[in-house]
Structure formats: C-alpha cells, structure tokens
Amino acid sequence: DKVITIDKATGQIIWNTDTSYRGLWEVLRLACTDNDVYYYKLKTEQADKQSQNALIFLTNIDVWGAFKNVFILTYRFDTLDFSMYCRLHNIPVNYYHIEDSTFKKGYKKEYPKGLKELVFDETFSLPGTALSKNWYRKQADGNTKDLRKLKAKLRTFIRKAKGKYIWSTFKDFKGTLSGRDVSPTQRPQDNKENQKTFSVACKQKATNDYKDRTYVAYTCNSYMHPVMAQLLKRQGVTFDEEQWALSGLIQFVWRSNLREVNNKKPVHVFIPSERMRTLFKNWVDEGIANGAL
Least crowded by CB within 10 Å, which of 11, 15, 44, 176? Predict the structure, then answer.
C-alpha cells in the first residue's frame, strides 16, 4: 500500500490515513498532520545537474479557522512572506491604515519619518549577486580580494560609530565578518552583566532595543529561497523578489535611531551590495519626492 501520495500539480505530500505504517518516516506522518508539506526537486549549479530533494513545511490553513479575525500590524504587507501565504491559500485580506490615531478602512501608501536623516556611505560596493548567501559560501578560505575589502570597509565604518552601531549579515556567515573592530557583542568593563549587542539578525523586526544607534551596516544581498520561489510560481502566486528584499532591508534600518519620533540626528547607512543600495535609495528618493521627511 502507498504510504504517501504526491499531488502532481502542487507537489503537496498527502499521508495515507488508512495505512498502518510505523517506522522511520513516522516523523513525516506527524508533519503532514500538523502542516502542509510540499516536495520539490531543485537543480543545483553543479555540472552534473543533480537535483536536491527539498521539503517545505507550511502552517496548515485550518489553524486560522480557530479565529474569527486575525489582525497583523506591519509595513508593506503585500511584499511579505505571509502575504504570499495568504494568496497561496486564497485567504481574504482587508487593509486598514492609521489616520488621526484611528484605524480607517483601505490601503494607503505611506513612508516613515526620517528619510532625510539618512546618510549613505558609498565608498564601496559590489555588483550583481555579490553578498548573497551563495557568494558568502564561495568565500570559504576567507581570503578573497573582495572579502578582504569588505571587512576593511566595514571596520572603517564601525570605527566612526563610537559604539552607536548595529551590523548584520546572514546568520551562517557572521563569523566570516567578525574580527577586529567588528564584534557581535561588547561587555563594559564596569558592568559585565550589561552586554551591548552590535550584531543583529538581518530579519530583525518589532524591537526598540537599538533605537540609540546612528550607524547601520547591512551586508546582505537577499534573495528568496529558490525552493520557495519555485513553490509559489508553480501554484500561480505572483511576487516581486526585489520588493521582498527591500522590505527586509527597510525593517532592519528602522531598528536604529530613526525609530525616535522626533529624531533629528543623521543615521549613517553602509549597504555594500549595489543591488540592495539601489533599491533602498530609489525607495527613499520616491518617499522624499512624495513629501515624506
């Protein structure tokens, strides 16, 4: 008897509830019970074109049936992962915006305050897909010309900050950039319990912990995971990968002193990815042109 079937159109794995199977794949049975599980093969860049098997776990849509309404407070929702999840499952979304300190129906495009306080450090940039996860993987020996330049420029930028900075890269490659002057944390000599964090997750959201920082270094060039992109495309869910990447960058930069409502201090930004900096600067220029300050 077949233990599972795979939907040819969607790639979703369906566990045969009538089977009496018990064994190694019990964990998959439990996963299919609690989640929607999809199977995909992704071709690698290797010359033999071998494929990687991948499983994608998504929250089962039935979970949302436990709630009458779900409210999500965020920015640029239509570019986020959860928006794509809603479109994947045809979950209806109603937009609200804040006006006169109250919620009003309808979508309203707005820009946050602080755009004119941004100061860009453009002394160094890397083009194309540089600073993507794949690029970092290829810097295995840690001594490539571009990586040496990046580390040197990052150190120079951080020295100017005098302890008022945050920096980020992809989690698996934090050690690649850490070193002299580039520290994940620091403990003051007079208070070892009062640890100050400098390295912040590149997808960090919803925190005011770093609102005193006036220097921000973002050394990521973000692309959607190819398996997730393949899943969405296969099921007809449209998405803009450039805007998806931009939203993550905006959220990170706004962990800084820009969160202070009456902030008038310049916030210095170092974004060495030419692609990410161009996306961000175009968005900032558009906001200023539309009257956002």
Answer: 44
Nearest 5°: phi and psi at 14? Answer: -115, 120
pLDDT tens-place string over residues 14-48: 988 776 777 777 888 888 888 999 998 876 554 44
For 240-287, the pLDDT digits (tens) are 999 999 999 999 999 999 999 887 899 999 999 999 999 999 999 999
What gap in Å lies between CA 60 and CA 34, rounded to an integer?
6
Render pLDDT for 103-146 as a digit per residue (tens, 0 to 9): 999 999 999 989 999 999 999 999 999 999 999 999 877 779 99
226's enclosing H/E stretch is helix 226-234
Spatial separation of the C-alpha atoms in residues 196 and 56, rounded to whole Å:
36
Nearest CA to 252 out of 192, 198, 206 is that of 206
DSSP state of 62: G
Q: How far apart are CA 84 and CA 183, in angstroms?
A: 36
Helices 241-253, 274-289: crossing angle, 10 deg rounding:
80
Q: pTM for the complete prediction?
A: 0.89
**Using an 8 Å Cβ cutoff, are 213 and 265 in contact?**
no
Residue 105 CB partners (closer than 8 Å, separation 6+)? 94, 95, 96
Strand order in the sheet with 215-218: 118-121, 267-270, 215-218, 165-168
